[in-house]
Amino acid sequence: MARETNILNTTKINSLQDPGQHHDGAGLYLEIANSGAKRWTYIFRFAGKRRQKGFGSFPDVSLKMARDKRREAEAMVRQGINPIEAYRPVAKPDRAATFGAVALDYIASQEPGWKNAKHRQQWPNTLRTYAKAIWDTPVNTIGVADVQNILKPIWHKKTETAKRVRGRIEKVLGAATVLGLRSGHNPAAWHGNLEHLLGKQRKGPKRHQPAMPYTAAPSFLADLKEQDGLAARALELLIHTATRTSEVLNARWSEFDLERRIWVIPAERMKAGKEHRVPLTPQAMELLRGLAGHRTFLFPGQSNSKPLSNMAMLMLLRRMEVDDVTVHGFRSTFRDWVGECTNEPREIAEMALAHEVGSEVERAYRRGDALDKRRKLMERWSNYLTGQKSTAD
Q1: Domain 10-86 adopts which CATH fold?
Q2: Is the whole model's pTM more than 0.90, yes or no?
């Protein structure tokens, strides 16, 4: 559901007397104490926990100032920085903080929110290995040339590693800036900076959309369920139904028959230009019940009149540091699972993916869409993803 913002105005604030929290939108609240004192507070989630940060008293901190502070804090959360820590006064060190010291502090602050053991291990290992040249360098003296020298030898030889190293250096130096340990632009930034020095990485042979191995899908889905936000729920529905990005993001409540557990995607929204009936598994139904109350679109964007951006789910994957998988690739994950783990006929699997099966003549004589057979297949898939025993297994 899109978040309503800018609910309050100065006139309304001056007239408010009831103790409690009064929502302005996007996590910003005006708190009124029993004494009548008014103060701003920002409520957000960080590392899976509910946090609260005060922004000062009203009217010393105006409505506009509070909203500016909220936007600034929200940007920090998106970058993996805890606003509570960032706003704390930083004691001036006896000597300049080194990159290594800031990196280890940053990792320690973020690690509680990292569930992947491999991810926790990679962060310090890659930085110690590839950023060794600046490990003991004061963060306030690191420049573009230093970062370029680190990345240049591996930029075209170890492309994925190089991209991760650059991103991690950028986050560490970004945290150093927020903490007041350095100033100026971030020398590890890509756009308008390193892109002019390192150039595009050489692309390999054209390949299919990168897909997650089906054996990794249950673990990934468990991590995905812990993520907040509509993009996470949209990706969950996409995986359970093996549908396409546009089909999920543009889904409207009017397309769903929850009593019959069917989602009917109209022809104009299908790649093949033909209506597609999607059987809804119990897991998909549970997800939909959790979304109840949204208007028009299941996954609205900034306003209820438009859906989420078509990049929302891909950006979620990147935030989860799943870099070698695309959203569309989950259809291949499903197809691989069908081929390896079931005895379902090829045409049933292809029909589940809304692919055209058989010749034009065969399709002309086929009246049904094998909904009941596809329902059993999709229920087996959802059960596999969630670790539940299937009666058909």
Answers
A1: Double Stranded RNA Binding Domain (3.30.160)
A2: no
CB 64 within 8 A of CB 84: no
Helix 117-130 × helix 99-110 angle, to 10°: 170
Angstrom distance (rounded) from CA 393 to CA 385? 14
Q: Tell which residue, 124, 137, 136, 118, has the closest CA to residue 168.
A: 124
Contacts of 309 (CB under 8 A, 6+ apart): 301
Cis previous bond, 59, omega within 30 = yes
Q: How far apart are CA 342 and CA 353, in angstroms?
A: 16
- Extract the tokens encoding 278: 């999607």
Q: What is the pLDDT of residues 365-385, one digit of tens each?
A: 455 688 999 999 999 999 999
Answer yes or no: are the C-beta atoms of 131 and 165 closer than 8 Å: yes
Kindly list the domain boundaries of the chain, sorted by start residue. Answer: 10-86, 99-198, 214-386
Q: Which CATH superfamily is domain 214-386 in?
A: Intergrase catalytic core (1.10.443.10)
DSSP-derived letter for residue 136 is T
Closest CA to 354 of 267, 249, 282, 281: 267
pLDDT in tens, 71-112: 888 888 887 888 887 655 444 444 568 999 999 999 888 887
Fold topology of 99-198: DNA polymerase; domain 1 (1.10.150)
Query: What's the rounded mean pLDDT across residues 4-24?
Result: 84
Token pair of 32 as six digits: 């009124």
User: Within 13 Å of residue 130, how many CA atoms lie on the same side as its CB?
Assistant: 25
